[in-house]
Amino acid sequence: QVQLVESGGGLVQPGGSLRLSCSASGFRFSGQPMRWYRQAPGEERELVAHISKGGDVSDYPDSMKGRFTISRDDTKNAVYLQMNRLKPEDTAVYYCNAPSPGYWGQGTQVTVSS
Asked: To the nearest whole number, what is the mean pLDDT of the chain?
């Protein structure tokens, strides 16, 4: 059974940091690129970060470059999203995604507020 389980969300003040984790099972994790998406209320789901299989290539939308860092640990079947200098507009549900088979996690809520 395929599972992607996100964790690490929560409430953080503007300027703070969070590290999201996604634990994968049920498929060959090391052979897949991985992504993080987010969806704010009333908004479409948007890509936050992409990492290649092997982890040598990562990519981000311009609004996240320099603040967000995606990484992976294939020994743990896990992908991470380090988020720094968080802003209120980063408030959203963050989802882990394996794009090629189209697997999604259930999401973890990130709220940036003072």
From this structure: 95
